[in-house]
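A.,

Following up on our hallway conversation. Structure tokens first:
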């Protein structure tokens, strides 16, 4: 296994120019560091523990640290050097740690010569150091466990932190180098760089040297460069800067009970989405998910009065006549909502102000007295797009019927009741239909197509009755709009009924698929129908 990230970290450690590692403690900070231009990350023990709300004393288990590191390395292309504290145990734990890190493409680990559980270098004095030989064994075990030659083990010398002085630091550094460490990290808690500069002077170029100027931050970086250090670690400033920002923001929102003075000072959610890579997912969805179809829309023709209903339609259009306490139109809307159709446009005309229901769109046919259905359909069609279901406003139907229509890929598809004659309909105006084949139980897999629609087809030609539902594909909608444009100037257009329109479509060679049903719908034309409709929706067959 050969890791590009491990190779890159090794190049940074051994290169001639001074390199920088930026602290990161989760996937987000890792991405932010990478975007800022850093070539490598420091998986800081202090920052990771702080961000998790625990102490820098190995309170997080090493596998919890590993899980977090996986998010960090997955988030970026640059290498990560883990602050591995004391190696989470003895030589044996170190071996396992190295193997598990390599499996997650972590480029290297830094271990320090202190005792488990470790204490942060800046807490207290006289911290006990590990036995030098035992620590050398840990380094050797780690080096023997790695499978990629480029995986780096950095040995952190804490002799200066623990107050043992330069000679001890050099002695330990040399022992760790001989044990196989790829670099030495010499750490200091002084506010001046004197100690680490003295170390480097004595150390020379025996092996790469890494420093962490958290305390001697006022030293110009040029000094480190001139002294010949290889890598500088900015060890905790992303975590600390986020603490400053979070403390200020939390306190202000607590005090003001409002976001008004905060919003413009923080990144917008679009910036969050950008750094999360939302755009890539959007593009991948286009490649891998089936193309999304807009949900179908419905167009309900409800401009007419329905004179046959007498007093019931004196103050309201037929679609608002109540069936068992609920307007006809509301029932239709509920059925459509039930199959996911929310975008519903209603063409209204007679007593249009009485036709009110929430979340509907309206088109007004103010010439409803002198026009017929095709005129209303043409008006409504201008306001809809995509797949459209046209329904008469005075028809109740069970939801499986439009569902069947939407299963068809034909541009035009109508529902036809093959039981048109049983029992005899009450209404003299019926859209009777002749198809290229009658309904037959054993022909479910064969499509049927409309040949004729008329109110007065000879009985022996009738295969069923159109129930007032027409599904149009997006192309069907455009075709019909084009036809309306062509005929809209003709006087006959104003009086065109749906049967006339279908006749015209057939004449123009349009194929109109017929889906046969058997009952489960009802049109409300007469008082008798109103009574029958009160029972609609049960399990029986109505018509
Ligand atoms: C860390 O980042 O956790 C370190 C460096 O060990 S420091 O806290 O500066 O000692
Ligand atoms: Mg640390």
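Then the amino acids I'd put at each of the 543 positions:
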């Amino acid at each position: 296994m050969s890791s590009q990230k491990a190779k890159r970290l090794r190049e940074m450690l051994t290169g001639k120019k001074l390199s920088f590692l930026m602290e990161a403690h989760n996937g987000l900070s890792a991405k932010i560091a990478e975007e800022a231009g850093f070539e490598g990350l420091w998986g800081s023990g202090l920052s990771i523990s702080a961000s998790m709300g625990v102490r820098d004393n190995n309170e997080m288990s090493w596998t919890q640290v590993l899980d977090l590191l996986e998010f960090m390395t997955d988030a970026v292309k640059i290498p990560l050097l883990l602050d591995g504290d004391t190696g989470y145990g003895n030589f044996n734990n170190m071996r396992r740690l190295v193997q598990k890190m390599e499996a997650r493409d972590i480029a290297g680990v830094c271990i320090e010569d202190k005792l488990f559980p470790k204490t942060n270098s800046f807490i207290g004095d006289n911290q006990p150091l590990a036995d030098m030989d035992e620590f050398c064994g840990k380094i050797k075990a780690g080096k023997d466990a790695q499978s990629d030659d480029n995986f780096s083990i950095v040995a952190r010398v804490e002799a200066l932190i623990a107050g043992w002085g330069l000679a001890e630091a050099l002695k330990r550094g040399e022992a760790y180098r001989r044990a196989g460490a790829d670099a030495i990290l010499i750490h200091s808690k002084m506010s001046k760089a004197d100690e680490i500069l003295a170390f480097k002077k004595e150390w020379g170029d025996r092996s790469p040297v890494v420093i962490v100027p958290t305390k001697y931050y006022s030293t110009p970086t040029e000094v480190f460069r001139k002294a010949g250090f290889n890598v500088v670690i900015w060890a905790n400033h992303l975590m600390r800067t986020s603490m400053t920002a979070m403390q200020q923001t939390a306190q202000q929102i607590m005090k003001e009970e409002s976001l008004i003075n905060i919003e413009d000072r923080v990144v917008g959610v679009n910036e969050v989405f950008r750094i999360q890579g939302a755009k890539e997912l959007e593009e991948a969805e286009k490649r891998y998910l089936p193309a999304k179809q807009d949900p179908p829309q419905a167009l309900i023709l409800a401009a007419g009065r329905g004179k046959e209903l007498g007093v019931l339609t004196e103050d309201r259009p037929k679609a608002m006549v109540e069936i068992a306490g609920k307007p006809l139109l509301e029932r239709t809307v509920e059925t459509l909502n039930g199959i996911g159709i929310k975008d519903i446009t209603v063409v209204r005309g007679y007593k249009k102000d009485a036709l009110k229901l929430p979340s509907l769109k309206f088109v007004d046919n103010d010439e409803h007295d002198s026009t017929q259905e095709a005129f209303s359909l043409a008006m409504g069609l201008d306001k809809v797009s995509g797949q459209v279901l046209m329904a008469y406003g005075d028809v109740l139907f069970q939801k499986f019927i439009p569902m069947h229509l939407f299963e068809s890929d034909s541009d035009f598809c109508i529902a036809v009741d093959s039981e048109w004659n049983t029992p005899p309909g009450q209404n003299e105006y019926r859209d009777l239909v002749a198809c290229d084949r009658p309904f037959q139980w054993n022909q479910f897999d064969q499509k049927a197509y409309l040949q004729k629609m008329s109110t007065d087809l000879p009985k022996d030609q009738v295969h069923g009755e159109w129930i007032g539902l027409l599904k149009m594909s997006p192309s069907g909608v455009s075709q019909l709009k084009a036809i309306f444009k062509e005929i809209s100037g003709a006087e006959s257009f104003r009086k065109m009924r749906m049967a006339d329109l279908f006749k015209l479509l057939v004449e123009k060679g349009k194929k109109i698929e017929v889906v046969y049903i058997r009952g489960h719908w009802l049109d409300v034309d007469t008082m008798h129908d109103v009574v029958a409709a009160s029972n609609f929706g049960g399990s029986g067959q109505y018509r």
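DSSP finds 19 helices and 21 strands in the chain. Curious whether your intuition agrees with the design.

B.
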